[in-house]
């Protein structure tokens, strides 16, 4: 007799309705078309499922980090245009041309290679220029760009359809970011004006929410699609999309003076009822929340984590409660925000979301 399947010890519930609501709110706030950034497995939410959901919302592009992500979206039957957000390796470019994905171009050598490949394929490839307005990660620098533009436009098999740049500090440095928008506008003017490009894009989620974007007609939200605002004081509050959950596996009462977890960093000062929960840093729950006041949500209440997060389990102080084995535990979600968990871990919400490991089952609702 085959035993019944074991329920997951840790799972992430993905609310696709909330994802759609956040996309629509982003589009309304931007006042222009959107490139949905779905790199890193849609920030840990499930690449194919998120792509299928947002494709129905008439998204202009999906932004991905690499060819592997582009391939997964295309192979899932999603027909939305795919934009590669960073530089590509020479060995990848034939597939990019063959599948008609849209690369960004950061150098003349890269452009010339794409031009040769497009000629071999008998097609004209749409590309976007990446320009460096302060990120320092890729793109053409502004100096000498008009001359390079002439060389780029002389390549017969490339259509320079768009231009974009990236904001490194939109959630931290308003003065620098406003200067970046001005710099981007100056670049467009030097290249012949905004109308020279079908697509002009600079804003990430923070840029979309916090700044005037009159030179742009495409925005690239990422984090806000998944329910976290990069500008905590902004009135637009995205709806939570992912809830990370587990279950209580064991409840015991420990005497005063008893250590909890590795290193005995926590020692009970009174008789303490301790719940063990089946999740740990091997699932992506950050170890660095240990000792920093992290809490979880069980039976309508928040309870404190005690001791260090281990690879597969955490311990919770559930003294004076009815918490029992099998109870559902929310690590983050509607009652404990992921940005709170990130702050207690000394990191950012992006890292927490993308760090949820494959052994955590994704349940899309």
Succession of helices and strands: EHEHHEHEHEHEHEHEHEEEEEEEEEHHE
Beta-strand segment tally: 18
CATH level 3 topology of the largest domain: TIM Barrel
User: What is the CATH architecture assignment of the largest domain?
Assistant: Alpha-Beta Barrel
How large a portion of the residues is in β-strands, by DSSP E?
A: 15-25%
Radius of gyration, in Å, reads 24 Å
Structural class: alpha/beta
Number of helices: 11
CATH H-level homologous superfamily name of the largest domain: Alanine racemase
Number of domains: 2
Structure overview:
- The protein has 365 residues and is α/β, with parallel strands linked by helices.
- It folds into two domains: 31-226, Alpha-Beta Barrel (TIM Barrel), CATH 3.20.20; 242-364, Lyase, Ornithine Decarboxylase, Chain A, domain 1.
- The protein has eleven helices and 18 strands.
- Strands 1, 10, 13, 14, 15, 16, 17 and 18 form an eight-stranded mixed beta sheet that branches. The chain has an eight-stranded parallel beta sheet with strand order 8-7-6-5-4-3-2-9.
- A hairpin with a 7-residue loop joins strand 15 and strand 16 (314-317).
- The two termini are 32 Å apart.
Summary, kept brief:
The chain has 365 residues and is an alpha/beta fold. The protein has 11 helices and 18 strands.
Write the topology of this structure:
Blueprint: E1 10-14, H1 16-30, E2 33-37, H2 39-44, H3 47-55, E3 61-64, H4 67-75, E4 81-84, H5 93-99, E5 102-105, H6 108-121, E6 125-130, H7 145-153, E7 158-164, H8 174-190, E8 199-201, H9 205-210, E9 218-219, E10 242-254, E11 259-260, E12 266-267, E13 272-277, E14 295-298, E15 301-306, E16 314-317, E17 328-332, H10 338-344, H11 349-354, E18 361-364
């Amino acid at each position: 007799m085959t035993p019944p399947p074991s329920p997951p010890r840790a799972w992430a519930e993905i609310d696709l309705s909330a994802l759609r609501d956040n996309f629509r709110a982003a589009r309304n706030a931007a006042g222009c078309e959107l490139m949905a950034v779905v790199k890193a497995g849609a920030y840990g939410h499930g690449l194919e499922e998120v792509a299928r959901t947002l494709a129905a919302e008439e998204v202009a592009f999906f932004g991905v980090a690499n060819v592997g992500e582009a391939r997964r979206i295309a192979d899932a039957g999603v027909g939305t245009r795919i934009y590669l957000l960073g530089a590509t390796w020479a060995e990848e470019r034939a597939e990019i041309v063959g599948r008609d994905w849209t690369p960004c171009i950061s150098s003349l050598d890269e452009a010339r290679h794409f031009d040769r490949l497009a000629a071999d394929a008998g097609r004209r490839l749409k590309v976007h220029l990446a320009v460096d307005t302060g990120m320092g990660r890729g793109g053409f620098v502004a100096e000498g760009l008009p001359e390079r533009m002439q060389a780029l436009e002389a390549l017969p098999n490339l259509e320079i359809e768009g231009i974009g740049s990236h904001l490194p500090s939109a959630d931290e440095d308003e003065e620098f970011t406003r200067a970046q928008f001005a710099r981007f506008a100056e670049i467009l003017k030097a290249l012949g004006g905004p109308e020279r490009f079908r697509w002009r894009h600079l804003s990430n989620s923070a840029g979309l929410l916090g700044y005037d974007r009159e030179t742009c007609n495409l925005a690239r939200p990422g984090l806000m699609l998944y329910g976290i605002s990069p500008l905590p004081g902004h009135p637009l509050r995205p709806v939570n999309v992912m809830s990370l959950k587990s279950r209580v596996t064991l409840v015991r009462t420990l005497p005063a003076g008893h250590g909890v977890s590795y290193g005995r960093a926590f020692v009970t000062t009174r008789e303490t009822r301790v719940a063990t929960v089946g999740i740990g840093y091997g699932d992506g729950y950050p170890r660095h929340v240990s000792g920093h006041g992290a809490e979880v949500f069980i039976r309508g209440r928040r309870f404190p984590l005690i001791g260090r997060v281990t690879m597969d389990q955490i311990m919770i102080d559930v003294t004076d409660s009815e918490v029992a084995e099998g109870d559902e535990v929310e690590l983050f979600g509607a009652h404990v925000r992921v940005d709170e968990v990130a702050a207690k871990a000394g990191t950012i919400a992006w890292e927490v979301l993308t760090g949820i490991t494959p052994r955590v089952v994704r349940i899309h609702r």
